[in-house]
Amino acid sequence: MSQNPAHEWQARALELREKIERANYRYHVLDDPEITDLEYDRMLRELESLEEAHPALATSDSPMRRVGARAQGGFAEVRHAIPMLSLNNAFEQEGEGERERFREVADFERRIEQTLDRRSPVFSVEPKLDGLAISLRYEDGIFMQGATRGDGETGEDVTANLRTVRAIPLRLRGEGWPRVLEVRGEVIMLHKDFEAFNAHARAAGEKTLANPRNGAAGSLRQLDPAITAKRKLSFFAYAVGEVQGGDLPPTHSKTLAALREWGFPVSPEVGTAHGFDGLIKYYQRIGAKRDALPYDIDGVVYKLDDYAGQRAMGFVSRAPRWAIAHKFPAQEQTTTVEAIEIQIGRTGAATPVARLAPVQVAGVTVTNATLHNADQVARLDVRVGDTVIVRRAGDVIPEVVRVMPALRPAHTHPWHMPSHCPVCGSALLREEGEAAWRCSGGLICPAQRKEALIHFAARRAMDIEGIGERFVDALVDFGYVHTPADLYRLTLEDFLEMKRRADERDGSTPETVKQGKVATKWAENLIEAIEASKRTTLPRFLFGLGIMHIGESTAKTLAAWLGSLAMIRRMPETILRVLPDIGQEVAASIAGFFAQEGNQKVVDALLAAGIEFADETHPSPKLRGRLDLAVLLDMAGINKVGPKSTKLLGEHFRTLDKLIAAGASHWIVAGLPSAAATHLEAFLADDKNVQPLREADAAMQELLAAVPAASAASSAPLEGQTVVLTGTLPTLSRDEAKERLEALGAKVAGSVSKKTSFVVAGEAAGSKLDKAHELGVEVWDEAQLLALLARHEGAS
Ligand SMILES: NC(=O)c1ccc[n+]([C@@H]2O[C@H](COP(=O)([O-])OP(=O)(O)OC[C@H]3O[C@@H](n4cnc5c(N)ncnc54)[C@H](O)[C@@H]3O)[C@@H](O)[C@H]2O)c1
Ligand SMILES: [Zn+2]
């Protein structure tokens, strides 16, 4: 062909060849394709029709004449005694009726009928597994060598890696196998292994696999077999290559049955079919099942079943004439990103989702695809306006697998996680070291309503029995409840009506008189349980609100130190931070929660509904030691004013007002280094700094004023003791023991250390008991514990 193509078709053919070669290299050698299979297949088809129209184009170096690509991955080469070929493809066409739509299959079948002069021949019908073709060589029943297909003539020796694939027998089972037997099949990655790999990679911030095929090919072609062993690969056999010293059955389907006997996995979907109608029936049956299969398939394969017929049909350059791959609609497609939005899940997790120009993927119109999390968006660098490849396989949500940077329009911007929930406007927060961002508006966020209610009613929170998932679904779906406060307004009639609607929705049978009575009893019980929940404790209530980062133990700390809900609600972040085990993140979450107007309304409504706390008390006297001017200045974090300086200022000036009134010269007189004085002066000159400081000071004064003057006999006789519970106690539940110990001021810890005061051990106590013995920590039984509790509980 000339360098300067004389014709347009020549130029196009050159262009197609170049693109196909490049795609082959990326796909077969790098296991990292840039374009979808659909685009590749289209180019191949176009080149094929050009070569048919202009036979001069069909030179021996045309990609139409070659299989795959010669790999160069650092493995030894293996020459295949019998070439590993490709398959011709049949795609669905426009048209009426099956013979029109599947005319390529019809042509294939008719050609066999005519050539062999046979009506309705028998075919082996098989799923077309989407993985990597390999050939396994057995000598005297022992696995000797395994190779990839490569360019069909020469593949790579990946024996060491294949030995790590459990589905590949290292030794043949049964009997009757030939002395030399080459078994061919597909190495694949199951959906569950692919998903698990990617979930792990996403959490660790590592590169994800684009699809299971790349996962299988990339994993198998690792130079270190230990890496291959870690990626879970599977294998299915579907053909044989070289055979010496023995005979195979006369048909392909019987050969597959023999392979199964000898220990090879063969897909359970494999079968036989007669003539065109049989083939199409199989195609449709597997197509309907495709989403439910545990692995990717990109079509089905029809193979003339008897070997004599196969020999008579022979080969074209790169594929047999006796077989064809009937392809399904593609599982990957290209489309453009119109927007990137945030979806809030029922637990508040914020997932970025790409809104796409609608596109057909594997027979379904896809308009959204998940981007999983903010890190994944950053890793893929997906931007609005980008052309992307989306993938939909099995029942997994469609996902964006890659961006095509060459097609990126000008003036795009990297995407960032928004700061607020698109549903309720609350701040989106991220837990340290976690990939997921969450909406902090648990109580008011409509997206989280159901979860919020379930959490509120949970046994360890408000303990409302009977509020299960189905019930909560109905409550929320029918609009009876927006926030937990609404629960306390519901009447018997509301519950009965709601139940009727829920039953109707589920298609339950109409009510009988007896069922009516049962329903009424059920509603009465619920109302009673809701009523009973009004008398609760402050920690249970705080926990039930579902404030981010607030577990049961933080809720108890808040209650124990601040004493009342009113006080907790008013405390700014800075004051909360002086409480034990409450760091900046937790303090910000609590203060942020109570500052939010929507949350305030819900809490007010709950109180208005009559919720009372049996245990509200005064702020803890221990606050006296923790709250003073020095602490306030420490929290402000002023440059050059370290702990020594704040201590000095605290002791000297006592109150913020006095400190400010005194001014820099007095501070220096009092002993503050002049550099520190300069920084403090500059700090206090800015109203942005002073305002929060004054607020914190006011809160601090209020809190201290509420602390009882001289505390009477300690209400916490076990203060300072750390107890560990292990095993099952004869009468006390773990929760009860914990609650009672904590009520007396003890700390209940999860693990034994030298600081542990004593361990209470019950039945089947395990490693904690061993640890106690090892460290010489005292071990008690339940009787001793009960005696201790009895001694103190009456008194406090
Ligand atoms: N996206 C890209 O850039 C790119 C580039 C090159 C190739 N491709 C894709 O690769 C494929 C072409 O490669 P090909 O030559 O392997 O052809 P093919 O995938 O169409 O068919 C042959 C292969 O099918 C597999 N197969 C699965 N189940 C089988 C069964 N039951 N019996 C026999 N074989 C079975 C074998 O691995 C065999 O080698 C196309 O799907 C093409 O789209 C994509
Ligand atoms: Zn929200």
From TrEMBL:
The active site is at residue 128. One of its GO terms (molecular function) is DNA ligase (NAD+) activity. The keyword Amino-acid biosynthesis does not apply. It comes from the Bacteria. NAD(+) binds at residues 37-41, 86-87, 126, 149, 186, 303, 327. It catalyses: NAD(+) + (deoxyribonucleotide)n-3'-hydroxyl + 5'-phospho-(deoxyribonucleotide)m = (deoxyribonucleotide)n+m + AMP + beta-nicotinamide D-nucleotide. Its cofactor is Mg(2+); Mn(2+). Zn(2+) binds at residues 421, 424, 445. The keyword Translocase does not apply. InterPro entries: BRCT_dom, BRCT_dom_sf, DisA/LigA_HHH, DNA_ligase, DNA_ligase_AS, DNAligase_adenylation, DNAligase_N, NA-bd_OB-fold. Its EC number is 6.5.1.2. Residues 713-796 form the BRCT domain. It is an enzyme of class 6 (ligase). Keywords: DNA damage, DNA repair, DNA replication, Ligase, Magnesium, Manganese, Metal-binding, NAD, Zinc. PROSITE patterns: BRCT, DNA_LIGASE_N1. Belongs to the NAD-dependent DNA ligase family. LigA subfamily. DNA ligase that catalyzes the formation of phosphodiester linkages between 5'-phosphoryl and 3'-hydroxyl groups in double-stranded DNA using NAD as a coenzyme and as the energy source for the reaction. It is essential for DNA replication and repair of damaged DNA. This is DNA ligase.
